[in-house]
Each structure stands twice: as C-alpha cells, then as structure tokens.
Write a structure and sequence with these properties.
137 residues, 4-stranded antiparallel β-sheet, two-stranded antiparallel sheet, 6 strands, 18% strand
C-alpha cells in the first residue's frame, strides 16, 4: 500500500490503473493475467476482476497468491475485504484458506517489505455461522 502506486482497487471489483505511473507497464502486464480491460482512456485504464477472468486465471495455473500478490504490491490503498472473498469464491477456495495462503508471506515493494496481510483492511464474514476472517489480521 503506497500512495505512489498505480492501482486503486474498488469494492465492486473494478481496478483503476494510472497510466502515468512509472510502474504502469509492470502493473498492466500482471493485471492482464486475471482481470479484464474495460476502458482505456488516456490517463486511467479500468480493469475488472470477474468470475470469468478469475476462472481463466485459475485454469492457466495461477494461484491465489499470484492474484492477490500483484494487487497488494501495486495498490495505493488497502484491498477491500469483499474483493478477497470474491477471489476465494471464484477460485473455489474458502476465504479462510486464502487467509492462510497470505499469512506469513511477504512482498517486497518499492517502499519496503510488507506482510501480505497488511494490505487487507476489512473483515470477511463467513457464511453458515463460521468465524469471521479479518482482512487486516
């Protein structure tokens, strides 16, 4: 999470990518693996993470950390908890599994090394009476 990063991830699954960022090309190439380009005006491109784009990513062999990692590395702000839940559901993992996958994993960013769980701010409410999983831990 860094205000200089090029991504803004919104709770509806849309991702805004700032073209002027020095990290634009790298972020764009990573997004193309699991998100669909919707609009590409001059300054900000809009991508969307959809069940189909995630299914395609999983079919191509991408795992949860291959999707969450780039989002966390290039995001200006914390990733909304419901985006984590949507990724988990689309890939067929329970959100607690995603939480375990991101636990004790670190990401080197231009601003330092962060634990992946640092990038999640909202709790994810489990269904059927299960425990809530913190998005911020």
């Amino acid at each position: 999470m860094n205000p200089a990063n090029p991504l803004i991830i919104q709770s509806d699954g849309s991702i805004l990518l700032e073209v002027a960022s020095p990290c634009y090309v790298e972020a764009r190439d990573l997004l193309a693996r699991f998100a669909e380009l919707e609009k590409s005006p001059e300054y900000i491109h809009t991508y969307r993470v959809t069940p189909l784009s995630l299914w395609n990513a999983a079919s191509a062999g991408l795992g949860v950390d291959d999707i969450i990692g780039p989002l966390a590395a290039f995001s200006k702000y914390p990733i909304p908890g419901n985006v984590l839940r949507d990724i988990a559901e689309a890939i067929g993992m329970h959100e607690s599994t995603v939480s375990r996958v991101t636990a004790n994993k670190y990401m080197a960013t231009p601003r330092g090394i962060y634990e992946l769980k640092y990038f999640f701010t909202q709790a994810i409410t489990a269904t059927a009476g299960g425990n809530s999983v913190s998005g911020r831990w």
